[in-house]
Amino acid sequence: MAATDKPVNQEVTEMVVNIVNQLPAKALARLMHRPEALKKAVQQAAGVAAREDREGEVEHLGGPPRQDAVSDADAAQRLDALTVPVRPERLLTSEEISRVLGVKSRQTVLNWQANGKLLGWQGAKRGMLFPVAQLDAANRPIPHLAAIRPHFPNDEALWDWLNVPMGELDGQTPIDALRASNVEAVEARALSYAQGDFG
Fold this sequence. Notes:
The protein is mainly alpha-helical and 199 residues long. Among the domains are: 44 residues; 58 residues, no CATH class. It is built from ten helices and three strands. The protein is rod-shaped. The two termini are 60 Å apart.
C-alpha cells in the first residue's frame, strides 16, 4: 500500500465509525450480518454525492480537449479542399435559349426538349427553363443526352445527376464525361442508377 493511501484510509474509517456509532444497536446488528447491503448503500450514497458535485459542470464527451485540434482557419481550409464547389446555375427560358442556339423559334427548342436532345423543366414563374451548361463551346447541345434520359424520372432529376462527381468516372461529373466523349461509361452509370445503385 502506498504511503499516501494510509491517511485517506484512516479518514474513511473514522467517517464510517462516526456514522455507525450514531446507528441504533438493532440496525448495527443487521448491517453486521449483511455486509453486501452496507456496500450497496455506500455505493448509492457515493453516486448521489457525485451527481451533486457535478451539477453545473460541463460534461466533456470523448475525453479532454484534443491537443492536436486545428484552428478555425485551418478547419475552413480543410473543409474547402473536401467540398465540391457548386456552380451557379444559369437557366434560360425557351426564348432565351433559342437565341443562344441560333434557332428561329422557341418551338424548335421545345421539340428538342421533347425528343431528349435538350434538357428542360417547368419553372415556377418563367415557363420552361433550360440549363445553359448543357451546351458545348459552340452552343450546341451536348450529344447523347437522349440515350441516358429514359433512366430518369424527369429532366431535372437527370440534370442533378449529371452534375455530381463520380468515382467511377475518375471524379468527373457525367456532364463533363459526356463532353469528353466518355459516353459508354456515363451510359453504364445511368443504367446502374436506374437499377437502384445511387452510389
